[in-house]
Please model this.
Amino acid sequence: MAERSDEVKLLGMWASPFSRRIEIALTLKGVPYDFSEQDITNKSPLLLQLNPVHKMIPVLVHNGKPISESLVILEYIDDTWQNNPILPQDPYERAMARFWAKFVDEQICVTAMKVVGKIGEEREAVVEATRDLLMFLEKELVQKDFLGGESFGFVDIVATLVAFWLMRTEEIVGVKVVPVEKFPKIHRWVKNLMEINVIKKCIPPEDEHLSYIRARMEKLKFKAP
Ligand SMILES: N[C@@H](CCC(=O)N[C@@H](CS)C(=O)NCC(=O)O)C(=O)O
Model:
């Protein structure tokens, strides 16, 4: 649990899967925090001051010190509050968890984001590319309830982006990127996630989230075919 002297503040945005990762980790650890909702279309002087390199949320401020980039923040939280560990203890397992987290961000997230930005044949190609990448997660979930193994951990927190952003976006773009027939293990994993109280508490409410994603896509002129 947080020490009484800990001052923890999260600059985030309610609909951001990156910001939600940090809320999940802080909630799992029982760390009280102040949440500062940021407008990413009109960045606050505080955000620009605290994250001058990327100018992005989330930023965690612990006792006045800012930390940016969600994967870095998650590790910081795990190092600082050691109850309910997020990363495995074994060095090889830790390396593997970091490997898959990096894969989710650098490969799945980057490719999946293009699904909403493309139409027609180009969209079909990125949907296929996203499925090829997701197949690696599907295989990781054989005989495992969570990407972290027996229990929910670092990779699961990072991959909530697949469960609560990519799979929600399907309804808006009108394409089943993660069909249950092809990805039964991923669908089972999403069900397992939904049984965790911290997850139930920390994911954005579905209807508001879908309206937000739809409005943002319209603003960016992304249209369903
Ligand atoms: N690699 C970053 C990505 C964070 C990110 O993409 N944040 C978005 C909100 S979902 C943002 O702040 N966007 C503002 C911008 O791109 O200017 C992380 O893991 O923290």
